[in-house]
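Researcher: Please generate the 3D structure of the following complex. Treat every line as part of one assembly.
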Amino acid sequence: MTPDSPTRRVLAAGTVVLFSVTWVVGAVGQEGTASTRRAGAPEDGQWTMPAKDYAATRYSGLSEITVANAAQLRPVWTFSTGVLGGHEGQPLVVNNTMYVVTPWPNVLYAFDLTKEGYPLHWKYRPDVSPAAVGIACCDAVNRGAAYADGKIVYNLLDGHTVAVDAVTGQEIWKTKIADLDLGETVTMAPLVIGNKVIVGPSGGEFGIQGWVKALDLETGRILWTGYNAGPDSQMLVSADTFEPFYDTGTEVGITTWAGDTWKLAGVPVWGWISYDPELDLLYYGTGNAAPYNPDQRLGDNKWATSVMARRPSDGALIWAYQFTPHESWDYDSNAEMILVDLTIDGQRRKVLVHFDKNGLAYTIDRATGEVLVAEAFVPVNWSTGVDLATGIPQVDSTKLTGASRGNVENICPSLEGGTSPASPASFSPRTKLFYVSTNNFCMSWEASQAAYIVGTPYIGASIPYHAGEGGHLGAFIAWDAASGRKVWEIREKYPVWSGSVVTAGDVVFYGTLDGWFKAADATSGEVLYKFKIGSGVVGAPISYTGPDGKQYLAVYAGIGGDWFLVAGDVRSDDPADVRPPADFMPDLARHTSQGGIVWIFALN
Amino acid sequence: MALPIVVLMAAASCGPSDADSAAAASAQVTDRVFAGGVAPEGKGLENPFKDDAQSVVQGERLFGAMNCDGCHGGGALGFVGPSLVDGRWRYGGADGSVFRSIQSGRPQGMPAFSVILPEDAIWKIVSYLRAQPVPEGVPTESWRTTE
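Model: Done. Output below.
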């Protein structure tokens, strides 16, 4: 199988349930301003939220670029960000201005799209501590900004959230939300819900006690903090409001952790937030439990590796579901929760769809937390499936890790995940398919006793990777979340770590780790166009309408993230840090090196 | 080590008061101040465990126990922090310079381990790192084949 050729696969459906997908329609609540635009609203050609809409679909209603003409795409503009870290996330386009946040030192650029060459309106350069670079587990990345009420809001690596005037570039407020001294950094993209900015920390490798906070959009004041582990009072759990579908009892944020290990739970929030205005619930996934040696935290470790549904007004936890109890493989669940409505057995269900690092794709009733579908979207061997009656995965006990279990070999997928939360999926209401970047690695896991030293990594495991079946290290796939079935895949030589955007022209766009930006037929997976954009892609493309009325695509080049760590030979910036290639991926550096570049494409 | 540098810079920029002069003299700073303000700290410090094979073994254990490998990778091959076994050093590769990096920390997130490690333990980590062989052929990574 050559890397570009699509393969159609029809998998034997384990669960024969017929679904039909309908688009989330009908808005409730906020006015249809840019800041509160939601799924189903008319396409305005802008990109004001990290994942396009509250439902996190990354679907663009623009249709000038089609399957028929995508081969005529051409790059029309580039800009070096001057920063070498991994360029994750995506730009925003608001009022004919493009906003770009760089990795540390978190420069914010505002480009005037109305003028030739897109000169800057301004650039904002916050004072971000260099110490944060070494506290961030996995490269000094940033996953983007959100626009609301005339403000660009985003997070700084050293634990601050800032609001910047979208017109003038002046800082409006800056709030310390995280404690660098405890190993907390911030890389996630905030979401603005009404007058609240929702944020969370990275630091699952540093033994933090993870949380989400809501800040006042006007002042930056912290309105509430809800922890992801710990006493019910800290998690904002009360018997009146907390109603998980699978009953868990009370104080599970303590009782599912041996001793007081919940205090060093990890459970970070480094991915994405989504929001359903009708149910008035926000959704996010939590990360790994700390440390990586699970012997040191016996129990289910709630709510690590879980989806959390909270009420935005006060943060109350309404329901939660744990994907991977007693998480033993760094299977963070920080990947996005994509909100769509499905008809199941003739019954309309409001669901969220989530592609977990653990290799399973979940379709969950987002009102109640009931798991409706859970099927593997990549090869999985730690589990044989999920019991839908209990929501509990059946675990192959030979794949459990821990210092007492020695070196556990050939666990699939690897801790890079079946997909990375850094590479968010997209959903088209036209094809009714989800588009997902995937990795094809397995791993061995040798845990050891980890010592907690504040501000240093709290890990305790050695974890080499190897290629999964087929030899290709990644694939870009189309997934039917109703049946839990892969529809097509484009195999790639390297892990696929970009996000994607799918459009009303039925074209889906993604990037590869060796630096190709690709357009594919969203129905068939046929690659329609590709262009080498200067560095590996770990960001997420967007589509928008320019001042001239044309449809554009924008995407970052700039390899980094985990590939800054484990493929260290792609670096060229430090004469005092020279590494051999990764044994599982010996030639990536032949095709890419670091470098942050913003690219814009349009039809010829 | 930071103190003498601060004194020198203050003396250079503001003109010395008598007190400053006295402090500068008593500090007996011999290191040069490089452009960029980075001094080769630790010059002249001797590793008391030099040539002690046991200290290498103990240092390797400490490298794991102190979570050094969490940033610098297993075998110090490099991870989010730089490789320490490539024969290249940001802040000097002499025993004393490596000692100071561990003891006092460095700007991009390297903690100051003097808070929790006695000097002997730091020296043993230095022994471990300095005992690692420097790989040959590192400067050139080649994919050229003999087709």
